[in-house]
Amino acid sequence: MTFALSGFPVYISKQVAQARDPLAQAAVAHRALVLMAWIGFAMFAVLELGADLIARAMADAGLAPIVRSVGLMFLTMPVLSAARGYFQGTFDMTKTAISQVVEQLLRVGVILLAAGVAVQHAWGPYKMAAWAMTGAFIGGLGATLVILPAYLKASRGFPHAATPLSEYGHLFDRFVKEGGSIALFFRAADLASTRGFLHGHARADRAGHGPGCGAGSEGGVRPRPAAGAAGVGRRHFTFDDLTPQSESLGGAWALDGV
């Protein structure tokens, strides 16, 4: 999904924007679509046929259905990458934006629906994860149905000359190096932001429930009752100083040091 949303579309849009005329722009997008189709179907076949082997290599044979669900996403990657790259390269962001909104709504909707059914029917974690990953494929399929007609209409009337295999080999090399680098950059940024968010929650949890909390703790992170407080209520945290506060019927707990 990272490749289809960010990496390859950004790289394709760069190549489209640098093309000299609309005919050259359509040719760039067409070559990208053909190449992405090869890559997408190859990745789909590897993940579908090799799911059991990949799961065993990950030391958990139960992951095989999840690996197969991931493979389905590569079927929607060719059209999404080429079409989004084409429209971004021609500075038409509306169609890309609409397709992304549709994709995320469907994906999150399937995940929430699967979560509700999983709770009702006591699904195991593997089945729930497989359905959650299937939501990405359903979202990509919906986005494809939205953007494909617009792409076909925009590229209609442009002849596509036969491209030598050597040209596709050169293009594949640039896709892997440049497009893959962009995708990995976006993925690394997502992981870094998620890691920081989780570490903030972990620090907050240690501040409020860790072994060093309470009166006389070395860290000085402790709730202090205001005048008229009538006991300890539920506790929540601020992310500025990670100092716990508490509310009760008799009043509110003040921030430490205030």
Summarize the SSE layout with pairings:
Blueprint: H1 2-18, H2 22-49, H3 51-57, H4 64-89, H5 93-121, H6 125-155, H7 165-209, E1 224-225, E2 234-237, E3 244-248, E4 251-254
Antiparallel strand pairs: 1-4, 2-3, 3-4
Characterization of the model:
With 258 residues, the protein is mostly helical. It folds into 2 domains: 199 residues, no CATH class; 39 residues, no CATH class. The chain has a 4-stranded antiparallel beta sheet. Strand 3 and strand 4 form a beta hairpin. The C terminus is likely disordered.
* SS elements, strand count: 4
Shape: globular
Radius of gyration: 25 Å
Number of domains: 2
- The total count of helices amounts to 7
Structural class, from secondary structure content? mainly alpha
